[in-house]
Amino acid sequence: MNPFLQLEKHQTRFRQLMREMNIQMSFQAYVAFVHPEFTLYGAAPRPDLLLPTVLPNHLRELDKMHERLTNYQEKVMKRLFETTLPETPHENIPKYTFESLEKGIFCAQ
Questions:
Q1: What is the pLDDT of residue 91?
Q2: 5 phi and psi, to 5 degrees?
Q3: What are phi and psi of 67, to 5 degrees?
Q4: Nearest residue to 48 via CA among 23, 24, 27
Q5: Which is nearest to 61 in space by CA: 70, 50, 71, 72?
Q6: Kindly report the CA angle at 103 between 99 and 108, in degrees rounded to 5?
Q7: N or C terminus of the chain: which is more exposed, having fewer CB within 10 Å?
Q8: What does the pLDDT look like over 43-76, one tens digit per residue?
């Protein structure tokens, strides 16, 4: 699935949650690829795309621009941490062990 479509979907859900909780606050969302050997070929530059090579600088910039949280921000953070969201299908991953998996190459014929 396209990570930017996922980002858009989750931004919409988060805005809805904030509206339901009467929280007035802006936020920025990004697609971040963190694996140091990841390469994305042919992608147009996007301000919401963070590749491994720009992550350290991006995090340093975030550190510089933010000061101590206000009381309001701390209350919002606490309320968000206490909120339980419905499970997504990706959280229902079956339990398994490596040993229980069938090994080998499989052919559909």
A1: 66
A2: -70, -40
A3: -100, -165
A4: 27
A5: 50
A6: 140
A7: C
A8: 888 999 999 999 999 999 988 886 788 899 999 9
